[in-house]
Amino acid sequence: MGSMSSLSERVAALSPAKRALLERRLEARAQGVTPDRIPRRPAEQMLVPLSFAQQRLWFLEQLEPGLAFYNLPLANRLTGPVWVAKLEETLNALVQRHEALRTRFVTTQDGQPAQVVEPRRPLTLEVIDLGGLPEAERETEAGRLALLEAHRPFDLARDALFRARLLRLSDTDHVLLMTMHHIVSDGWSMGVLYRELSALYVAAASGRPAALPELPIQYPDFAVWQRAWLRGDVLERLLSYWKQRLAGVPALLELPTDRPRPRVQSFQGAAYAVPIPRAPVEGLKAVARQADVTLFIALLAAFKVLLFRYSGEQDLVVGAPIANRTRVELEGLIGFFVNTLVLRTDLSGSPTFREVLARTREGTLEAFAHQDLPFEKLVEELQPERNLGHNPLFQVMFVLQNAETGVRMTSGNFAPQLNVGTSKFDLTLSATETEDGLLAVFEYNTHLFDTATIVALARNFQALLEGAVTSPDRRIGELPLLDPDERRRLLLDFQRPVDGRAGTLLLHELFEAQVRLRPEAPAARFLGQSLSYRELDARANQLARELREQGCGPEVCVALCMERSLELLVGMLGILKAGAAFLPLDPTYPTERLAYMLEDARVPLMLTQERLASTLPPHAGRTLCVDSEWPRIAAHRDDGVAPLAVPDNLAYVIYTSGSTGRPKGVLVPHRGVSSMAESQARVLRIDPGSRFLQFASLSFDACVFELVVALGAGATLCLAPQADLLPGAPLLQVLRNERIHILLLPPSSLAVLPAAVLPDLRLVVTGGEACPAELVARWLPGRRFINAYGPTEGSICATLVECQDGTTAPLLGSPVDNTQVYVLDACLEPLPAGVPGELYLGGVGVTRGYLGRPDLTAERYVPDPFRAEPGARMYRTGDRVRRLPDGGLQYLGRVDQQLKLRGYRIEAGEIEHVLLRHPALQEAVVVARRGPSGEPRLVAYCVPRDGRWPDAAGLRGFLRESLPDFMVPSAFVLLATLPLTGSGKVDRRALPAVTAGALESPAEWVAPRTETEKTLARIWCEVLELERVGIHDDFFELGGHSLLATRVMTRVSTAFHREVPLRWLFELSTVARLGAELDKGHEGESRPREPALTRVAREVVTVPVRSDSAA
Questions:
Q1: How far apart are CA 59 and CA 545, in angstroms?
Q2: Least confident interval from 8-12, 90-94, 228-232, 1076-1080
Q3: How far apart are CA 37 and CA 327, in angstroms?
Q4: pLDDT in tens, 571-623
Q5: Residues 238-251: what's their mean pLDDT?
Q6: The CATH number of the domain where 345 resides is what?
Q7: Listed residues 188, 222, 256: the one ending a domain
Q8: Of 400, 306, 410, 416, which is closest to residue 353 (Cα–Cα)?
Q9: Which residues contact 1007 (CB under 8 A, 6 or more apart)?
Q10: Closest listed residue to residue 441, CA positions, set 269, 295, 274
Q11: Could you say which DSSP state residue 72 is in?
């Protein structure tokens, strides 16, 4: 039993690769099958096909020629005297022994790559003597030369792909630099090289032959065999597994980056290393043993949990390299055998870390059991959507360095920072076991990430690892990412404390305070008429008494449906003074929408104007026309009205877009808005002489902001008819005529307003949607510019920032007084700076909830776990943000499908609900897309019913019967079907881009027009084996892939007698676009510059190094 137990433990300790190999060999033995050995290729075969792995590297070299992405630099310190002639002899023996080191790569006439093995390829060992330098400078110069050597690119068609230099520091101190291209080597090969180099050198120095076994085959033999073996049933079996395993795989893991992803992937990178102490590593090993998994799987699981917490993506895909030497005859070869496995793990359902270990184990072992399918072949067969901006299938790599890779960390090595300044993926975690625990090296793309971001990520990984070891049965969303100090800083240092006295005045009491201070000052202006604070107060008092006589008081909702006028202000203040709440209704809204809101709010009374009364929908309550009935109302006393309401009573109800197809009413009490108004009057520096434009629609809470903030601070509120407020010349005229000081506009309206000379305008406030930097730059000179943020549910304004320059888009800013802002994950845990999460609002500004919707209120208004006050709640904004290191908040988009457009918050579901009522439509999805000018716009993707294609004009007219103009999409794209995710939901990310204009019907075939287009179409037909190609047909949608792309562009270069870059076909993938570029007369593009050489001070070893004594 003891030996069986020992055997079980040894099997359990095997890496996934070794376990898969063991299972394969045991299965073969049980079936009495001996795998056929790989045969040698025919001696006369001069052009050898590339292996699948080589094929991809060759393709990448064609795409970005002349770079050092795939250089494999090695540095070996030799202590003791070195016999240079024997060392050179040894290196040449090594080159002669391994054909891979004598191979170059050519392109055949039809664009196919092939490898050619030179019979002999003498290597000259260049010796650079540094002994003449002062001793203190030799090490520095050796490091500089090592970096230069590492950055020197190879020409695959001409160069020897293995080179060496010897740096002499003294008679007994040398550094041997060897560089290979990855296309002829891999990590395992480095171990082979070191072993054989040592044996050959010792033998040469002693005059004895080296006792190296004869190689059964060479790498080109493997390439020929792989091409022949990987077909038929073998290929079908492997493809069947991987196609099923990767069905519906996400195209991109969207980690939070510091900069937008470049259109074409950059491979510039850096590395950051962090030691992980022995204690958590040993703890992780113990947890791994309990779960019957290896350290590789345990670290991979922890890394995937980190990626989940950073991205919010539950479908995690990570690449992992494997040696791919499952046959005995391959073990002693130098060559590029390594394969990359795509390891997918489902983290949905809030699993515990122990459950994630089990899921990761299952997927990893299955993947290793099907490792014989090359990654390159997998990409070719799956044909994921091409994108030059990122790697296909996965963008993050995990590596556990071990003996199989030939990489060992030993002391005494010459280890300058030989990272060649590249990163093949967005992020790679490379872990190596050390005597003290683990060394975790995070290699990252510097076009995406700052060093500070990766340092924070590494710190979070350590905290998560320790939490997983301590509590493996906790759900992964609850595992800590923050240490106590960072948690305290996020929850306390970036917040505004809540003052218990905040918001004690009612909204109209803010106005009444100004009446007492400056009764004769102008309160409002409209079309040449004005009311002083005293006059406005008197009229509002008269209306309040009328409303009280009609039964209006606390918690009673009165509809207010008026055009912009002085009567509108009287109506709003009169309702508030009566103790009631107002329901603002824009009279331009569709009748159906107004009727729904009146019915849903059950208003007993509506205030309106005589000219509107006949156009409004019927409702159960009474209607009071303030203008025509004013003589009777004016009979009431005009002195002060004793308050009936208290700060927690309802002030108003505003309807916002609803996901069920119906808008929902937000219940807003006095306290939060009153606190906000007092705070904003100070921040905006509004004084009694200020002139504030009233721009927003009555039904938009920005209108409440304008009215309450202006009148509560003693300013003059300037109103104008709707026609005079159209962004452009009419609005500009109002700003000039009224000498406006303060302007509040959504960015989309401000963008179309000419930046004319407006000497009186001293403050611009934007809000409601993302504000571009260009807008700040245009409007900031000579005035203040503030960007505000806040949903209706958070009492209008929750954060703001004063912009100092227009170089970057403004952030959401800092919380206003008595407001807390939290960036939380799905488990309501605070997230580290830089990690996206949902924005939650706390404090006095949190409103009451939704009218008649207790279910939705409970969903969006949740208990605040960070405040001690009984009953404290937070509001889930649905906005996706991240906190920057300085505490600022950056808006990233919507968590759900709610959209923000031109200052309006729009629920896509409401528009979709109306679209689906159209008899010609079967399915519909609405998203926000940026148009040609960069401005966001609504786009509706529609599937017609029974093949009928409705026109865009008809759809717009149909929508306008039920929706306001801002909710009508500006473009309609008609599709045969909507793209779906693996779970059957609509895949919004896979919806096609919108071409110029709205698509009315499927694109039609268009024949080539010019000679250039005809030549391109002919080449595409030949390569793709098609009868015809239209000028708007996409090469890749027609079945093209990377290898065919190289064949096409080889022929294009020949046909046009010029070198045409391969990348053009990826960027200009139709005949029309590629032809247009060719007709411009370009002579090709310049080769990209090599990454700048920079030496990094931190200790990171990124290349295999050994410490040997030379005899």
A1: 82
A2: 8-12
A3: 8
A4: 999 999 999 999 999 999 989 999 999 999 999 999 999 999 999 999 989 99
A5: 91
A6: 3.30.559.30
A7: 222
A8: 306
A9: 1028, 1030, 1031
A10: 274
A11: E
